[in-house]
What does this fold into?
Amino acid sequence: MALHPEWLVPQWPAPPHIKSVCTTRAGGVSKPPFDSLNLGRPSNDDPVAVDTNHARLQAALGVVPVFLSQVHGVETVQLTAPPGEARTMVADACVSATPGVVCAVRMADCLPVLLTDVNGTVVAAAHAGWRGLANGVLERNFRCFEALVQGQPGAVVSDPVSSRTLAWLGPCIGPQAFEVGSEVREVFLQQDAEAHQCFTAKSGGKWLADLAALARLRLRILGLSRIYGNDGSLTWCTVGNPSLFFSHRRDSLALGGNGRMAACIWITN
It folds into this structure.
């Protein structure tokens, strides 16, 4: 089964044996407001439909994605075998150096971040909302990724892993739609004064936050310069593209629920 033509395939210079994809809402069987490829568990969607959607994703990938129990935290787990649905593993990021093991994160408005190195020895995936970003989910994920890269046979230890790391940012709530209070802005400014460039003032003490820009800033501080994907433009905004993306903020109250997409990355055998 081929990937659905409306799913996003990262455009980045990853080695050929590294595969990655980000699903959209297309290609499933769920009915509104979860139409159609809702991968969210738990949700108010029909469990049979969600199971069918997962089976379709697995068939398209040819391997079983490993999903975590995400809690908007910072924990990273290393995956060494394909255990299927790892819903008992509470974490918001994962890494793997094992071929055939698919690192995956679910999202609606939060930002998915995928990593690999230029030699394709390790892959990683992180689920980054503003809380996760502020608390260090990308930093934690990269440190685990870095250690795993350094531990591979024949690893080059003289060059920083960050200089050999590729990052891809997927769709998320965009800076045109992500309204936050001043307290959220202050959290980021207290950690890095440069974060001011990622916020635009609105009336009533509110701000528009650029989640992808905040992630890029964090990754650059870690030493990463090869960053691809979401540039904050409208085409990447989950809220602004209702026919393509699920959005918690847009749909949960207005429609009574919303689905989840998935970003996946793995090393082929």
About this structure: The chain is about 20% helix and 20% strand.
